[in-house]
Structure prediction request, 721 residues.
Amino acid sequence: MNIKTSAWITVSQNTGDICPVFKKLFAPEKEIEKAELQITALGIYHAEINGQRISDFVLAPGWTSYDHRLQVQTYDVTALLQKENDLRVTVGRGWFRSPMPGWLNSEDKQRRMAQPCGLIASLHIYYADGTEETILTDETWQWAKSRILFSEIYDGETCDARIVPADWQPVKPLKWSKDILIPQEGEEIRETERVAAKRVFKTPQGDTVVDFGQEVTGYVEITLNAYAGDEVLFDHAEVQDKDGNWYNENYRSAKAQARYICRDGKQIWHPELTFFGFRYIRLLSWPGEAKPENFTAIAVHSDMKRTGWLKSGNAELNQLFSNIVWGQRGNFLDVPTDCPQRDERLGWTGDAQVFIKTASYLFDTEKYFKKWLHDLAADQRESGEVGQVIPDLMPEAPGSAAWGDAAAICPWQVYQTYGDRTVLEDQFESMRKWVDFIGSVTQTPNLWIEHFHFGDWLGLDAPDGSYKGSSREDFIASAFYAHSTALVVKAGKLLGKDVSAYEKLHQNIVAAFRKTFPEYKTQTEHVLAVHFGLAEDAQKTADALAEMVKADGVQLRTGFVGTPYILHVLSNYGHADLAWSLMLRREYPGWLYPVAKGATTIWEHWDGIKPNGSFWSKDMNSFNHYAYGAVADWVFEQAAGIRHAEDKPGFEELIYAPHPDARLGWLQAKLDTRHGTVSALWVCQEDGIRYELETPVRTKVCLNGKETRIDPGKYTFWTEK
Ligand code: BGC
Prediction:
């Protein structure tokens, strides 16, 4: 990559909060055939040639484990070049230098915030006469203060449109590693949808608020006529309080404000080097009368191809499906984040692990996760420990069961959905090291006992005042130890490695687990015992789970750990109607409760807004937290009935085994797989159920307790009532 022959450059004076803009003027003397720009920055950059954006990639270079890996973007800029050219690059703090995580103060955070702003680029010009020229970042570049006076991930952005960069200074060379430079690996981050403001209204307390009708992650574009010096200032919120007043306490320390000082005339602006998670904005300052046409929310995320669709005869369920998709769109901004609004927005490993199967059905996430998993491996500690968040902004925080297990679960899921084993080749060492780490820190061989864990995070059976459900932490940790070890064995065998030691380890874990935990006390404990193949009698355990759920009033008590699997366990063992009852529950706790409360994304807590309209808390109350959206994989696999045969990853062969339920009338699922599009519909009619299946591959159909094998094609089946 020839960018490595360029030099890192930086500013010659501290600019404080002001984002610098770098400039290079050049005038090629010959006819240009092609020009390619390779570029990256320490911070988020925005690049223009002759006043035109060089690409629709926003928030470049994205977010990686910057100490080890920094993506370089390559753009074809041929069409932008003229006789005389002005290349300008503005660099904001971005993820690189923002004070993340917001609530924590650590040496590592201080170190990161003190890092310099930097730019490296190389423009390669191919002339029509066959000669070539390269323009590199070097001491001939200049810098000035840009019109972006402040930009940062949590607090937002300030732009003064009156400013025209002047007082250009020579840049300084910057000593920074070039070994970290890698070609772009992930999906490009783009603006993917424009959402018009639905209404502008006054709250009872007198605030002027704009409602977009949908929670999005991105930024608001404003269009207005103004005088130079007029000020626009707005903050962001996800919900209103019970009286319809402004509420954004749940953003915690994240100010999430956009401020714009106008120039004269008609102008359009949006923040450029940061993003927000929001449905509402509050106009703290606006020149004149605000109208809906002044505001457009722009959704921004990794531009993954949509691959999965669900639709049913139940409007609320359809809204839930939409919320799950928006939850993914709002949190797949280069890194799978817990939430996009408060002072977190971090790549929590547990959340990613919980949601990855659903994510990989709804969108093509192969490239996206491969990139993030490379970061996971890069940040994995010497001991094999995997941090709580990736990129690991908390290197001093201990790994936890079900969070660190992302190291094994995520590569395996990517392989399962797409069938390409390169992800396993890339990640095998990381998977194995995670399992070895557990073995090295546990107090009891073959179990994971005594360590910090998040437990069944947000489980509803949590004791008062705790975020952790009452499932035993050692139980959860040991169950995941077994599961990750089993995945290392499977992956290793596929790759032709000798994994006999891990096979033995797995047998030992299962034996020790059964001996140590002969009884299951909570819903989540039952779920894990069955789902990870640990229960001696899976049917009996699933039946006991069903009884427990009924005794709990047909209600979930599970948290992050148990919720993704509970419906699978129920429907796999003959309790599909109970699974559907949980799925369709409109009261708290249930997936449709937030929908009934007007949610447009997935909530962190089932009762983020309580039945009386009050909030769960201001502390931990995200309204765009994708984890519980993981239920969509159950809808594809069990409800609609589409899954791949265990030994045929990538949907090379299908099993069709739907679980219809008359309460929603009909359900349709469509999935674009590596082997073609599968489409499945069932319709409950008075006298029976009609099934329509279109499959691109050989399929085993399981209906009425019978199994039939079919070839690719379109089929209709019928079962009598
Ligand atoms: C995040 C979660 C995360 C958790 C760890 C929270 O603050 O928002 O989603 O997994 O911490 O328990």
Observations:
- The pocket of beta-D-glucopyranose is lined by residues 338-339, 344, 348, 350-351, 454, 457 (CB under 6 Å).
